[in-house]
Amino acid sequence: MDAAGASAPASPPIRASEALRKKLAKIGLHSEADLLVHLPLRYEDETRITPVAGAPWGEPVLVEVVITSCEIQFRPRRQMVVRGFDDSGELVMRFFSFYPSQQAALSAGSKVRAFGEVRGGFFGAEMVHPRFHKVIGDEPLLTEMTPIYPSTAGLANSALQKLIARALEGGDLSETLDEELRHRLKLPGLARSLRFLHTPPTGTALETLHARNHPAWRRVKFDEVLAQQLCMRRAYLARREQGAPVLVAQDDLGARLVDQLPFGLTGAQLRAMAEIAGDLSQPYPMQRLLQGDVGAGKTIVAALAACQAISAGWQAAFMAPTEILAEQHYLKLRQWLEPLGVKVAWLTGSLKAAAKRAQLASAAAEAQLVVGTHALIQEGVDFARLGLAIVDEQHRFGVAQRLALRKKGANPHQLMMSATPIPRTLAMSYYADLDVTVLDELPPGRTPIKTRLVADTRRDEVVGFISKHVDEGRQAYWVCPLIEESEALQLQTAQDTYAQLAEDLPNLRIGLAHSRLKADEKQAVMAAFTAGEIDVLVATTVIEVGVDVPNASLMVIEHAERFGLSQLHQLRGRVGRGAHESSCVLIYAGPLGEIARQRLKIIFENTDGFEIARQDLHLRGPGEFVGSRQSGVPLLRYADLELDADLVEMAREVAEKMLVEHPEQAERHLKRWLGTREELLKS
Ligand code: ADP
Ligand code: MG
Fold it and tell me: What are residue 478's phi and psi, to 5 degrees?
């Protein structure tokens, strides 16, 4: 079964002048088929005339007035003021820019039809910059609603309207969903839906059309989401066609690692391991995302996957987005694996030349596990036999980077990890081309984190709180505000805070970590903190991901209102990792904006990453959610992943079946909805 093999004829290019075609291409319209699914943003009703006096305010209407005067005024700013009336009353129209021809058309005695919103101005009913034309004789009204299409500079709505009307006449409106399926999903036919949306019959309530919950809109949205699912599913299947090394363990390395752990694995970890182990022993590359809330214990699962690759005679690579995190992984993995005889190499940008040469040589020869940052994917890095590529905090990497790591081997298996839990529907869209394993259980013995919100006027109390906390033998983080505009300023703030805290807490050992530190300095600070030689670590967001020091059980975040929700959740996740009661103090500076207030409320009330993510999605939409992952989501023009969640669920199921049972229909469906844009998804 290979749907990619079935090929539907391409839709003919749009018949139009070269100049017009260029403009159309700018908004993604290349073929006749593209025109058919270029749907209106909204509609204007010019099928009837509304009396000026009865016009609902704030809603665009068509009025017809006879002009009584047209003057240019210079105060308060230059404008053309036109007065006219109909049977019901007077209307003032204002134009702040205008041509002499318009001025002429609006001379006293002319009859004009103006389309715009009527507002109550100082002098009565007003329209600002209405669209208008002069009426000559008994001009009939339009008989249909006017669809207003998304457009670009220099491309008139009327031109689009004409082209689309023509496409509707002769275009391919063939159905891609079976009658039976449509019936089950309660969706109308495609041809009917498109005709309705492009040319709604007179009398259709504008509200229905604009609210987008009309069955015709549902059909369009479903088709769109289905195309996206088909596309990603197909990419997934295509990658399966490629061969990959079969990684079957030849010894008990994994079991020996488990034996020497100071803890037992959780049920979720065992399940994840089993799934991954199964994938690795297949002759096609694994494409799995391991998702688990902060602290769920993803690292050991990855280490066990690496063991399987290693004991099958292959290498594993482990890439992390920051130097601090990579280093921490390196230390941890070495501590786990070196006693078992595994050779671990280490690559980051900051290695000195000689050390780097040695590590590169190791990666190209005997190393069994190579840990590092982006340095792993640079040119000149060669792996002897890369069988498994592990990417931690995968949302921090771009597609190209993950691809580059894969290219370091001949189709290695891939394990991606993310602590950014994303809502289910979003996951189904973003990760439709991956298998997903969720670690839905935290290791036992974690104490819930107490979150407090404290105004910055009470900073002194927080300092006292730290002191008490350290007296009890614990450690603390103090995270300095994010200053997006300037890294230098952010650094300055961290240094100031460090100096201030050292002064306020003379008996405590304070450390400072920020991104400008040299690698060995950073390493020394982190090692000292891990060893308990530093009580309070002042840091910028460099500690945001992954850092794991169980004895640190207090997290203070300054200017918490400047952080995003997932960042706050990540930062808070640095504590609550040991047996001690942990707390997180969010210091905020008022006055708070509405969004900031909402965010703090959400983080205060919730500890579950998925719930936080769900509310975050609600708050700001899916845009930034999954970092730079290129996915099908940008292809969605009409559907909304949150509002249309039910459609996503349905589409996922239909897509799987359709590719198997009706590959030709699937192909036609994809061509129609994605056309040339399908290329965007090839990654
Ligand atoms: P994350 O999923 O955020 O990457 P880590 O892998 O860093 O989480 O694990 C967090 C901490 O929990 C580490 O100190 C790790 O050693 C510990 N840990 C992992 N699994 C277990 C377990 N089953 N029981 C107890 N502690 C565990
Ligand atoms: Mg981690």
Answer: -130, 110
pLDDT digits (tens, 9 = 90+) for 28-59: 899 888 999 999 999 998 888 999 988 887 78
The C-alpha atoms of residue 421 and residue 217 are separated, in whole angstroms, by 30
Cα of 298 to ligand 1 centre, how many Å? Answer: 7
The dihedral sign for the CA sequence 25, 30, 32, 37: negative
* Binding site membership of 300 for ligand 1 (Cβ less than 6 Å): yes
Q: Residues 186, 201: contact at Cβ < 8 Å?
A: no
pTM for this model (two decimals): 0.71
Mean pLDDT of 342-359: 94
Residue 491: alpha-carbon gap to chain centroid: 28
For residue 607, the one-letter residue type is T
| Superfamily of segment(s) 48-141 | Nucleic acid-binding proteins (2.40.50.140)
According to DSSP, residue 230 is labeled H
Assess whether the C-beta atom of 419 lies below 6 angstroms from ligand 1. Answer: yes
Residue 471, pLDDT above cutoff 50 = yes
205-207-211 Cα angle (round to 5): 130
pLDDT value at position 485?
A: 66
Residues 6+ apart with CB under 8 A from 593: 561
87-96 pLDDT per residue, tens:
999 999 999 9
Taking CA atoms, 323 is separated from 156, 352, 384, 529, in Å, by: 52, 14, 24, 16
| Per-residue pLDDT at 634 exceeds 80 | no
Give buried/exposed letters for 368-394 (b at 16+ CB in 10 A, else e): bbbbbbbbbbeeebebeebbbbbbbbb
Q: Which residue, judged by its Cα, is nearest atom 20 of ligand 1?
A: 297
Task: Find the ligand nearest to 574 CA.
Answer: 1
Instruction: Give the number of whichever ligand sits closest to the CA of residue 439.
Output: 1
User: Where do the structural domains in the chain lie, given as residue ranges?
Assistant: 18-42+148-228, 48-141, 449-606
State residue 287 phi and psi, 5-degree precision.
-135, 80
CB 239 within 8 A of CB 287: yes
Q: What is the pLDDT of residues 9-35, one digit of tens each?
A: 567 889 999 999 999 988 889 988 899
End-to-end CA distance of the chain: 21
589 pLDDT more than 80? yes
Q: Is 265 in the pocket of ligand 1 (CB under 6 A)?
A: yes
Pairing verdict, β 79-85 and 90-95: antiparallel
- Indicate the burial class of 425 (C-beta count within 10 angstroms; 0-12, 13-18, 19 or more): buried
CATH number of this structure's domain 449-606, picked from the four choices 3.40.50.300, 3.30.160.340, 3.20.20.70, 3.30.870.10: 3.40.50.300
Phi, psi at 58, each rounded to 5°: 80, 10
